[in-house]
Fold this protein.
Amino acid sequence: MKNKTKKIKIFIAFIVVYIIVVIFFHFVETYSGESNIKTLFDSFWYSIVTLTTVGYGDHFPVTIPGRIISLIFIFASLGILGVFIGKISEIINERKERKKMGFNGTNFSNHVIIIGWDKFSKNVAIQLINAHKKVAVVTDKKEDIDFIYEDFEKESIFALYSDLKNIPSFEKVNIEKSNVVFVNLGDDTENLVALLNLKKAHPKTEFLVSLNNSDLRDTFYTAGVTYVLSKNEIAAQLTASYIFEPDVASFESDILSTAENEDDFDIQQYRITKNNPYLNKSYGEVFNDLKSKFNVLTVGISKCIDGKRNLIKLPKDSEKVELDNFLLFILNGAQEKKIEKIFNVSEGLF
């Protein structure tokens, strides 16, 4: 506020001095009968044309004092031009910085929001983007923004620099139109605080949280988390698997990652829509048909019962495939394209 008041005072002082100088210039020029500056308007016109470096030449001083004042106008024009160019550059740079920091927001929809950025978040983003999902990242570390855009294309990722306690700022990542918000702040207490604040503002949004302490799983479910992920549990299970059944562990690692190439395997789920050819057929029929035609292994059905997801692993052959169920497959990248074409949907919940 003080800085703004100071600038106003300097501006007023400049205007006062400018008017006094122009009036004096007018006085000394009109005193000479040879001058073509006849009126006060002519004096102001000449000063403005000179200060803006336009220089039409329609008016010019003929007296010595008038020419001295003209020199003042000429040197002042350099300063004014410098300030003007500097201000324009400042505005352009400020707008670029605002856009880079994500302050202009994004129009992403059906996307995933990641809160907190580290190596784990980056690996999650890689898998999502490889699966053709768009990702919005919210971080409170300014230096993260450059790293994010160095690693990913702007068409697939959006980054917002924000105080994580500033809940209204999450509107900039289009949180209401996101499919899920992944909270990964590294500390379970910070995760819980962020979750409670966001859940209060956006009660219908689904949240996934990564925990360091798996004992807090029930606490987070009570707080309204849709999915809870324990990084340590997954790492421990995979490590143990590598110890006594390394081939199984290798296969698990493969299917947990997104299929980037046609030979890569992945486990995926696809929604059953009303136009799906397998709607209302039995699991046995689906399994046999997809295995014989496309070498796709159907390993489960996910049904939504009373608002909760119920995964049936390797169902009975008689289990019916119904509208809005999800079928789970093990398949490679080449088969994925065929399944997407037949099912007319992309993999995943959204």
Observations:
- The first strand starts at residue 112 and ends at 115.
- The mean pLDDT is 85.
- The chain has three domains: 2-100, 112-234, 262-343.
- Residues 64-100 form the longest helix (37 residues).
